[in-house]
């Protein structure tokens, strides 16, 4: 006796299609840290830390704030 064939799904689950223009802002925290001019130097120093180190923290804060802003602007209001 042959095993029954598994049922094929009728359709693939619908993927979220959020084509909001707000999503373009998410490129800011990706592109801005890639600009070498920001890292080309030692001064100014903040609390004795060279520019490179405090800019790393700034990029993290930029990414978190941009992501939070885009989320707030694109979340569904009907819930």
Structure description:
It contains two helices and no strands. It is mainly α. The chain has a domain at 22-74. The model has no long low-confidence stretch (mean pLDDT 82).
In terms of DSSP E residues, the strand content is under 5%
Low-confidence stretches: none
The helix/strand series, from N terminus to C terminus, equals HH
End-to-end Cα distance:
51 Å
Helical residues, percent: 25-40%
The number of helical elements comes to: 2
Radius of gyration equals 23 Å
Largest β sheet strand count, sense and barrel closure: none
Descriptors:
elongated; single chain
List the helices and strands and how they pair.
Blueprint (H helix, E strand, L loop, with lengths): L27 H4 L19 H24 L5
Short description:
By secondary structure, the chain is mainly alpha-helical.
């Amino acid at each position: 006796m042959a095993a029954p064939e598994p049922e094929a799904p009728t359709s693939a689950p619908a993927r979220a299609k959020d084509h909001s223009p707000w999503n373009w802002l998410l490129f800011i925290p990706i592109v801005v840290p890639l600009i070498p001019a920001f890292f080309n130097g030692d001064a100014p120093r903040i609390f004795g830390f060279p520019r490179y180190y405090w800019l790393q923290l700034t990029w993290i804060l930029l990414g978190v704030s941009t992501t939070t802003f885009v989320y707030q602007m694109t979340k569904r209001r009907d819930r």
